[in-house]
Amino acid sequence: MQIELDGKVALIVGAAQGIGFATATEMRASGAKVAVADINGDAAMAAAERLNGDATETLGVRVDISSLESVEAMVSEVTKTLGAPDIVVVSAALLDDKTFLDSGPKDWRRIIDVCLYGPLNVLHTVLPGMTERGYGRIICMASDSARVGQARLSYYAAAKGGVIALIKSVAQEVGPEGVTLNVVSPGATDTELRQAREAQTKEAIGDERYASRTKKVLRMYPARRIGLPQDHASMITYLASDHASWITGQVISVNGGFVMP
Length: 261
Ligand SMILES: NC(=O)c1ccc[n+]([C@@H]2O[C@H](COP(=O)([O-])OP(=O)(O)OC[C@H]3O[C@@H](n4cnc5c(N)ncnc54)[C@H](O)[C@@H]3O)[C@@H](O)[C@H]2O)c1
Hints:
This protein is an alpha/beta fold. Helix content is 49%, strand content 15%. Strand 1 (9-13), helix 1 and strand 2 form a beta-alpha-beta unit. The longest helix has 21 residues, at 154-174. The two termini are 27 Å apart. The model has no long low-confidence stretch (mean pLDDT 97).
């Protein structure tokens, strides 16, 4: 099966690094024009330059998805430069490694603003154009922590659970207009997001306990490895293609078998 995205415009939010950047690379290789959006504007522009394409095919743009105004400005810049987005991926997120009782309203707000308000802002901005044109593919990243719970990630997991409910509900509303929405739910994946959390854990528990913990973690994955950004990029690109036109409102765990919800 060959995935062809020729003539499509893909907007990937949170794409300066990690799963978002791997997806941008994959979609560009499949022929899409690609906008790389990120709160780190310089990194977004540098990432867009690393993609194979010129200024009519790739764009780097700064956005803070927690702000509706910023999201609207991003979509209007992408539309002006590359065309209206046919494909939108929301990969941006923040993580907080804290027990619920050690956290407070400021922590909850910071995570929920990005991880739940972010997708709300993006969907509300891009859906009117997609439904009018009768075509759209939206993929939001959640997390298996939302599907089965995870200690020390409670409010992040709550935000991601909200994303799952949002996508399933909106998929029912806009399906007749040719728009599909799906969720990819990763297990542990080797990206900057995870590396930062792992470095903190290693510092807190020391090298020896960290090595034994790593072995234990791997035993929880039937595939005996943690994920790579490319594992998700392949699934997201498939969901963005016309091969997946009959898949909507689904949550697909890409997780080496870690949980089988
Ligand atoms: N890596 C994992 O183990 C893992 C596990 C489960 C779920 N996920 C989910 O997968 C997605 C991608 O994760 P990743 O590991 O590639 O993360 P990452 O941290 O490597 O990349 C996320 C990107 O989002 C950007 N970002 C953060 N806040 C933003 C904002 N307000 N506006 C715009 N951009 C913003 C960051 O600058 C960064 O470039 C996330 O939604 C994450 O929750 C990842």
